[in-house]
Amino acid sequence: MTEAILQKKTRNTLLILLFLGWALGNLDRYVMNYAIVHIGKDLSLTNTETGLVLSSFFLGYALMQLPGGILADRFGAKRVLLIAVIVWSIFTGLTAIAWGLGIMVVIRFLFGIGEGGFQPSASKLITTYYPKNERSKVMSIMLSSSAIMAMLVPIISAVLLISIGWRAFFVIAGALGAIIAILYWKVIPKDPVAVKTEDTPNIKGILGKLLRMPFMWSLVISYFTIYAVNWGLNSWLPKYLTDVRGLDLLSIGSLQLIPGFIMIVSMILSGYIIDKIDLRISKYIGAFFALLLAVFLLLMFNANSITLFIVYQCIVTFVMTFVVLLLPSFILKNIPAEYSGSAMGMANTGGQLAGFVTPALIGAMVDAFDGSYNAAVWLLVSISVICVLAILSIVKKDENIEGNIA
């Protein structure tokens, strides 16, 4: 399969669809971080069990990243995208029937399996249908929907989880997924037909070469570390603000509008900046921002007022978002469309494994230290420092990626 750049109007329509799909996926994902407060009470979960529920999604999501990319490369991005939306919608709806810890973990795991095929196949669509100088911008706009959801979900959660309950909410979210699936089926262009020659590498050959590339392993570690901080914060911040700062969900929702807005601005700006700047320079900016992340995480959790906490959280959000946007740009601009699904799946596996490990680990640490979050904070700070080193290790000698794979 080769690049098949679409007309601008069609590219814009495709971008809107990707934006809406990613928005819904993140709505389903983020709401759990607030619903778990009610779910934990209804199902009598400990902090360790709460962490297990939050992490179960990420285990399924992580395990599906590489297979999702390989399937998108092999059978087409549209097919994988459709299946991803259908499967995650089914298991989002089934979350409403969970009656205990075991079934909740299984359902959230399968929800993760469904959603796991979305980003690798969406990345393949971007590398196939968009010119290289637009790809970071397109990715940033698509991912900005997650920032919008991060801003809106606290308010949505405070209103709907109280008024209709968490079970009814997940039924509605599943129904919305069915609508998105129909739009994808009707509107997204058919997958381009792959033209194979005797020189075209097969999936096994592509995967083998990707696994032998230091470039890819640097990205895997970078993804793991930045997403460990990202999902550690997203998963536990509502409960931290409730347990330690004494806030209710409505207050948390109102306050989180501010860093949510900062995330949206950061995502959109980051995409434009990354498209304009050489990745060699962006890499050093990303490493510097990861270092700032470690510093301001410490300041945030040691802030002596909620106002100061939110100020530091806004800075944390801005620098972390730039790094999150920078990392996929190395793949979007260096890996050819034929292999972009597999490459993105491999890199994103690191990020989503972090999403599985970190929430459960933080929950266990909070239980182990009698409700104290101090050890968890130092964990996130240490991971941020490792992220600095991982980004700096993305070596330039691998810039001729096409030549290394072909």
UniProtKB/TrEMBL annotation:
Keyword tags: Membrane, Transmembrane, Transmembrane helix, Transport
Keyword Ligase: no
Locations listed in the record: Cell membrane
SUPFAM superfamilies with a match to the protein in the record: MFS general substrate transporter
Main subcellular location: membrane
PROSITE patterns: MFS
A molecular function (GO) term: transmembrane transporter activity
Transmembrane segments: 12-32, 52-72, 79-99, 105-126, 138-162, 168-189, 210-229, 249-272, 284-303, 309-332, 353-369, 375-395
Pfam family, one: MFS_1
This protein's GO CC annotations: plasma membrane
Keyword Nucleus (UniProt): no
Domain of life of the native organism: Bacteria
Membrane topology label: Multi-pass membrane protein
Major facilitator superfamily (MFS) profile domain sequence ranges: 14-399
Protein name, per record: MFS transporter
Species, as recorded: Ureibacillus manganicus DSM 26584
